[in-house]
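Write out the 3D structure for:
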Amino acid sequence: MKAPFDSSGWRERLQQSWGVPFFDRVTARVRTLTSGDRAIFYMLSVLIGVASFGGLYTLEQSLLIEVPAYGGSLVEGEVGSPQFINPLLAISDADRDLSTLVYAGLMGLSGTGSLVPVLASGYTLSPDSKTYTFVLRANAKFVDGTPVTAQDVVFTVRKAQDSALKSPEYANWAGVSVSALDAHTVRFSLQKPYAPFLGLTTLGILPSRLWERVSNEEFPFSNLETNPIGAGPFTVVGVSRDASGLIKSVSLAANPYYALGRPYLDRIRFDFYARAEDLATAVRNGVVESAYGISTKGSLTAPYARVFGVFWNPSEKQIFARAEVRKALSLALDRQSIVDNVLGGYATAIMGPVPPGKNVRQFPVPQSEDPTAMAAQVLQSAGWTYDGDARMWKNAGAKQTFDRITIRTSNVPELKNVVSAVKTDWEQLGISVDIELYEPGDLSQNVIRPRKYEALLYGMVIGRDQDLYAFWDSQERNDPGLNIALYANKEVDALLEDARGTADSATRTADLQKIEDTIAADYPAAFIYAPDFTYTVPVTLRGVVLPQIITPADRFATAASWYRSTDAVWPFLVSKN
């Protein structure tokens, strides 16, 4: 039989352990209370205990730091459908988005827009700025656990340089010599200094052991296109197709071997839609959580490295050779009204060729309550008079008249709305405007390439290093050059060469400032706006930082750091790195 509990022995042991007869005194005092008082005492004791524990918990929580934790997923929506999940063949936004997440380059993009080492631990640049030497990280691995080697880098670059593959990367890598110094060291040699070169090394690296036996003809049809083995933060784990074979959904999972550390999100699923309207509906209904180009309350925005304007072609319409005509047409545009009323405020009004950024001061946009009167004054000062009966401007001295412009542009909603606003502003100046719309491919092939336009409403996509050579150098006036304004200025030519050839950032910025000011003052185009990039994400997704956007895939610059789950830890447990 179990012995009864000896309360006196228990009290003696407590007295010995505490050294004072505390519990005896408390117990004796409680016994003197009435039953009602004892109940109140016990209730107060419980409340004090709960309050004490609650206070300690609150204190602890105030001292803990919230940190990202692994887990969670994201559903991303996009217009289009991927065809090549391959950095050498990616041609659409869907291709580039998936390739960016699945593959990694020697360098990568940070949330601030700067380039940071990813597969490489670092690089050195020779004194003549023509040789770059990269050392691979010891932990650089593909998703199957095999190491990334210098030979993989050499293979990828040489494949990009293979004209038979017809890679969109071909022009970027032409003239670059690449060699493996050892298993972990790669050297690039340039024919002459080229400051934007470092940005090219964000090219995703292919595993040569899997691709080297695939012929150029088989490359686009390889099973590796939709089952890629890359070294990026995520990897493809599922592809869903519709009845016609078109990819409708792609599921990605976190890559545990990613060189910069496993991403916090477990999965990202891409759902693809045929029309922007369908995507917008999916966002509104909560079927899709994130999408770019869809503006909702709380959407994230970032500068888009694109400039839109109306570019003149003096070869097609001689009147555009006259500086005062170009200037008057430019000043007649109410840019802020276009930004506010046509673009919903998601843009910046501009007057020059350089997108808004940190370093270059924008050429000032005229502030006038009556842009039409300001433009008319420019023409009148140069000897033009307006004939209201004939509805045309006349210059007796030059024996020229000016009454009509035909603008050609792409048949997309944004540009259709912008060109309508341009038409309104110019017709207030007394110039009739005809608008011709083309499908994007038709515009590029049959209008832009042969330079068949009087005026062209178009957008230039400027690279991260703001290399404007292809757009404004006089040698780029004919196809395949991109100088669609047929602009020629020897001073600008020299500045463009100097800017792309120097590694000194201060010199490049100074050159860009002169380029911005000189071109803007020549009015070779009526620059109108630089759009904002808009990205809708759920409020529960954290860690999203957008750099300046060149292509939509840049929104994934910090994707490995996005998170939806958190842990609370003591400050001393948080890594300082």
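The CA atoms of residues 167 and 467 lie 21 Å apart.
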